[in-house]
């Protein structure tokens, strides 16, 4: 026992102070896209043609990026000869509405709005989530699982993952919703007692990701169950997931 206490003192406090301070991000981290339409050459469609998932469209005002479809790969920025498309280090990507993820030129990026007051009072200090992998590749699942480690300690905010949907307040869904998982997802959703939340985590759950329009998937949750929070990324960084969850509960202004 004494040795355990001494080792605990030696190691010190390992949980990072996020969200009070910015999270540590890798040098190659790519966050919210930055659009500078003034740099676009007339008739240039290089970024649109380079995008592997059709997340970019070009309007008269310049390029538009759907962050819900975006894989945050560097293809568009590398293809743009004028540097009109780049990626910032802003990890705060989550949105309450699907339209919040569509980034237009000169737009101030919206932040995820909190739940209504009565739901915040109900879930604000104790939120239990059942995670459902609806055909995911395990990337989003792995970065979600990281939040349970000592460094992130999601439980200090009262947010926990539970084994049964009957013990849950909502679902956190990853994956493009394959044919084989659609029925299981709906059954899990029905098992969660009302009122309940749904969080679409990752490009696959939002719009199908790299599997979009394949015959074996349903392009994410749209049209299957209602979604209360969209967290884009492929996969979303743990900081992006935590930031979205805390904003949803009104724990971050």
Describe this structure in words.
The chain has 253 residues and is α/β, with parallel strands linked by helices. It folds into 2 domains: 59 residues, 2-Layer Sandwich (Alpha-Beta Plaits); 132 residues, Rossmann fold, CATH 3.40.50. The protein is built from 8 helices and 10 strands. A 5-stranded parallel β-sheet has the order 7-6-8-9-10. A 3-stranded antiparallel β-sheet has the order 2-3-5, with no helix packed on it. The chain has a two-stranded antiparallel sheet with strand order 1-4. Helix 6 links the parallel strand 8 and strand 9. The longest helix has 13 residues. The radius of gyration is 19 Å and the shape is globular. 39% of the residues are buried.
Query: How many separate domains?
Result: 2
Instruction: Quickly count the helices.
Output: 8
The level 1 CATH classification of the largest domain is Alpha Beta
The CATH architecture of the largest domain: 3-Layer(aba) Sandwich
> Low-confidence parts lasting 5 or more residues at pLDDT below 50?
none
How would you classify the helix and strand content by structural class?
A: alpha/beta
Assembly level: single chain
Kindly identify the CATH topology of the largest domain.
Rossmann fold
Distance between the termini: 42 Å
Radius of gyration: 19 Å
Helix coverage percent: 10-25%
- N-to-C series of helices and strands: HEHEEHEEHEHEEHEHEH
